[in-house]
């Protein structure tokens, strides 16, 4: 995707700078676009934990490069296993992280230590290329849904899409998941408008999704998280499209906290609720998402404080709760499959069910 006309991916390697790994510091957006240079697996792990890099597919890709960085220092068997375990433990909910690390281990374990570092960089690059291609395919399959809405209502009526959190190109290697169909629809000349949930407490919608859409010229409006149901009641939402950090084999969907409430409102108002994901986000080992998916509990300070820019242009944090007030911060919730209209994957669309997923991915079941 492009920023001010210049194409970027969300992670890249500089071979002329010690094979360092580069990412955008997402905690600085939307007020500053800063590139981080990562030179060790510890720096990669810190970037993932602090959400300087975030988004389930991108976390997996960056963690793969983190393992490559580790192998430049020590490529023996024990170091390979220890560093892989450390990176896999940085965040518990997104399944892409574990998938990427397991894929790297499967590829690297049979190799002699002297060959592992170079092979790790090559495998991480393949993971990135595959993610970009998968997300582009998700965009094409999701675009068909938006074209169908345009066909029903006519070309002059705006298609109103609601999304929650950030599932755009900054959360993946390129294109994004939930935003990929929107970008393609906009580029194809369809009249689209996006309702962007602010996504408290970290405000990924207000900060990241709005920044992405604005950079690409897509019309959008940021709304408070609690406004979506009201808009649905008044016919101002044609479709909800969200991303996900983990989908169970039965079609349950774990996504940013607040997604479940949007799905309830969508069902009550007969608004289609679609979830976009690459196959790497499917966890075939889990059936009941509510009981089995671990939900990350993040620091209370993300709830009690909020970051913003003051009139003088300084970015700062301010406290919004009384001193001594406790805060809980579950980072994700699970939307049961019964509330999901369908899943958009790189191989097409399907019902949110085991049978639906197996119809597209029989080899993974």
Strand order of the largest sheet: 8-7-6-9-12-17-18
- Please report the number of helical segments: 12
State the low-pLDDT regions, or none: none
Taken from the alpha-carbon principal axes, the silhouette is globular
Task: Count the domains.
Answer: 2
Helicity level = 40-55%
CATH architecture of the largest domain, please?
3-Layer(aba) Sandwich
What fraction of residues sit in β-strands? 15-25%
Q: How many strands? A: 18
Q: What can be said about the biggest beta sheet? A: 7 strands, mixed
Structural class: alpha/beta
CATH secondary-structure class of the largest domain: Alpha Beta
According to CATH, the homologous superfamily of the largest domain is Translation initiation factor eif-2b, domain 2
For the termini, the CA-CA separation is: 33 Å
Helix/strand order, N-terminal first: EEEEEHHHHHEHEHEHEEEHEEHHEEEEEH
Rg from C-alpha positions? 20 Å
Instruction: Write down the overall mean pLDDT.
Output: 95
User: Within the CATH hierarchy, at the fold level, what is the topology of the largest domain?
Assistant: Rossmann fold
GO biological process, one term: L-methionine salvage from methylthioadenosine
Pfam families: IF-2B (PF01008)
GO molecular function: S-methyl-5-thioribose-1-phosphate isomerase activity
Site (Transition state stabilizer): 165
